[in-house]
Specification:
The complex is a heterodimer of chains A (about 200) and B (about 200). By secondary structure, chain A is mainly alpha-helical. Chain A contains 8 helices and no strands. Chain A starts with 8 loop residues before the first helix and ends with a helix. Chain B has about 200 residues and is mainly α. Chain B has 2 domains: about 100 residues, no CATH class; about 55 residues, no CATH class. Chain B is about 75% helix and about 0% strand. Chain B is globular. The chains are: A mainly alpha (about 200), B mainly alpha (about 200). At the A-B interface, helix 3, helix 4, helix 5, helix 6 and helix 7 of A face helix 1, helix 2, helix 3, helix 4 and helix 5 of B.
Chain lengths: ~200, ~200
């Protein structure tokens, strides 16, 4: 993973401003903007390798917590690439991570905070109630669609039916029981590690 | 915190976070359980275990979190934190959602290279992916119970759920299209139904 680059102060600023600029475009989650990040960080600036980009997304999805943390890893890797070795690399990795995360979070979080404050103060207005209640069925439809698309990653039902079956069983268990979710994830990991699904 | 509301639903005796630190650790704990998406865990912890909110409130907040730009669960944590302790609460919940998971992700990235190609690790990730899809589907069905007392009635609600699902999952319409159109229709219909 050696991919040495040199970032000037203006480049660091550029990295920060890039994440600021796409923050408000990330409707439906930060992962929706991943193609644009690839264009900017890998293709245009050459700050990251393809391998680093894909590994950052894969790790953040496998790890607990919000998937937006893949952006922290992107920034970390940019910093590592420019930092040489040892503590210097870690320091610039931390700088890259901080600039990327603050950049991507600051505009969208501030907007959400202001908008929902307003919405909560005006929650008895007919328009606010109509909006929040009216969106409920659409949001539930979106959730089911997300689950469907995630299952689609399993591939061909004829050969991958154990994975589909596992998804179906988990759906029923989550819906109908109060079994702890970590048991389900542990069981999935075990079945996968043993090659049963 | 909240002004006296005209609707006398059980807001008085409801459990609440004690202080911003309680928010921070609650969100840390649920973020650390959230492999493959935090949503299912948020519903389980905040609605069913802690009972800080009802299913109906959760769906309403989730709708707003989904429409605002930015990661949905992060938006949700800011909204819930702000409601209880204002800006301090929003920052506490947000910090809980991000701090420890960030350290875990960083640690994983540092050891990833050694284990990524191991077939058992790849298999475990595949199995967890299948479970994660089930967690989201199961949460979706569970939240559908919140539609029971919806002003649009059961048939119209079911039709809207089905249309959204078909448009996104089967026809692959873009979200930027589904949300304004189907959401707009749903909001206008609801607005007419809840006429005073």
């Amino acid at each position: 993973m050696t991919h040495a680059i040199a970032l000037q102060p203006l480049d660091w600023l550029n990295l920060f401003l890039y994440f600021i600029s796409i923050s408000l475009l990330a409707v439906g989650g930060a992962i929706a903007t991943a193609p644009d990040m690839h264009r900017f960080l890998v293709e245009r600036q050459g700050w990251l390798t393809d391998f680093q980009f894909n590994a950052s997304i894969a790790i953040a999805q496998a790890a607990p917590g919000p998937n937006v943390l893949f952006i922290a890893l992107l920034g970390w890797n940019v910093g590592i690439n420019t930092g040489g070795a040892g503590p210097a690399a870690w320091a610039s990795g931390a700088l890259g991570m901080a600039l990327s995360m603050v950049g991507i979070m600051l505009p969208s979080t501030t907007l959400t905070w202001l908008a929902t404050r307003w919405g909560h103060r005006n929650r008895e207005r007919r328009s606010v109630r109509a909006f929040k209640q009216g969106m409920a069925p659409v949001v539930i439809g979106l959730l089911l669609a997300t689950a469907w698309l995630l299952s689609g990653a399993h591939g061909n039902p004829a050969t991958d039916w154990p994975l589909w079956l596992l998804t179906l069983v988990c759906t029923l268990l989550v819906w109908r029981t109060r079994l702890h979710l970590l048991w389900l994830l542990g069981a999935g990991a075990l079945l996968g590690a043993l090659g049963l699904v | 915190m909240s002004a006296p509301s005209p609707s006398p639903d059980a807001t008085e005796a409801r459990p609440q976070p004690r202080n911003p630190a309680d928010l921070f650790w609650s969100f840390t704990w649920l973020a650390l359980q959230g492999f493959g998406g935090v949503l299912a865990v948020v519903q389980r912890e905040l609605v069913e275990k802690k009972r800080w909110m009802t299913n109906e409130e959760f769906v309403e907040d989730w709708a707003v979190a989904q429409i605002m730009p930015g990661p949905n669960v992060v938006n949700l944590s800011v909204m819930i934190g702000d409601r209880h302790f204002g800006l301090r609460g929003a920052i506490a919940a947000l910090a809980g959602m991000l701090t420890f998971p960030l350290l875990v992700v960083l640690a994983l990235a540092l050891v990833y290279a050694q284990f990524a190609s191991h077939p058992a690790v790849a298999g475990a990730l595949r199995g967890m992916g299948a479970v994660a899809a089930g967690l989201i589907a199961g949460t979706g069905f569970k939240l559908a119970a919140a539609l029971r007392n919806h002003p649009l009635g059961p048939w119209l609600c079911t039709a809207l759920v089905a249309l959204t699902f078909a448009g996104m999952a089967l026809l692959r319409w873009p979200l930027a299209w589904v949300l304004p159109v189907l959401g707009g229709v749903a909001c206008v219909l609801t607005w007419r139904r809840i006429a005073p």
